Amino acid sequence: MARPPLTRPPALPTGRRPSRRGEIPWALLLALLGVVVLFMLRRFLRLFFPMLFLLLVLAPLLWYLWRQYKYRDVWAVVPEYEKLVALLRRLRLSSYRAVVEASMKHLLAARDRAERFQEYLAQEPPHRLRERLRDLERQFKDTHDPEKRRFLEKTLADSRETLAHLDELQEFLRRYEDSKAVLAGHFKNTRLRLELDEMRFAEGIAYQSDEVDRLMTEIKAFDSMYETVDRRTGPRTTTAPAAAESDEAPAATAPPPPDRQAQ
């Protein structure tokens, strides 16, 4: 019986690397796309590079200078004001945020008035007017001419009235300087109180709504008061309004928990 021919045993399968033909090299494609875009826009970038560079540099610089100009002389208040406004915006307490922003706006208006008053007082220092007033009083005392005495008497009355108005301007400036520290303290205390109320509300502890409403009513009532400072220098008469909120700008007080919108 014939034996079957010998055959070679089948080869064992060898390990193959998985095919990568289905994968897309996104990083390489994006890099190539970026190179193509830069190559196509090379003339545009070369032409407008100085303008783009100036824009990138000047935009932050202009924003910085604008903030320096807007908040000049009130930087002691700005950090606490921005923290409180950011917190109220996050908690969506728009009514309380409006009160805080209004108080800051009134402080800035008082700052503008204070700058005008300082410029005016630099031109008409009160101590110089007091010296002139004492000199007029000596002349009035030593003069016996009736006509000259009447003239000096009227001049003395006008000088005393002008000095009284200059003293009012100085008092306004003093109260304005004090109001900055007071308002910064109000903003800080309000922020801390609001954060405390938020934590208490998260624990299920109720807050004093009547107290908050009472404080808000007092703020709005104080915010509606105004004061007028009249300035008279001899024959010239000018009037400059001075808001009372600049004396002690309206302070935001403890808002309710974040789930309650102030009415």
TrEMBL record:
Biased composition (Low complexity): 235-252
Keywords, ordered alphabetically: Membrane, Transmembrane, Transmembrane helix
Pro residues bias spans: 253-263
Bilayer-crossing regions: 24-41, 47-66
Ranges for region Disordered: 229-263
Protein name: 5-bromo-4-chloroindolyl phosphate hydrolysis protein
Lineage: Bacteria, Candidatus Ozemobacteria, Candidatus Ozemobacterales, Candidatus Ozemobacteraceae, Candidatus Ozemobacter
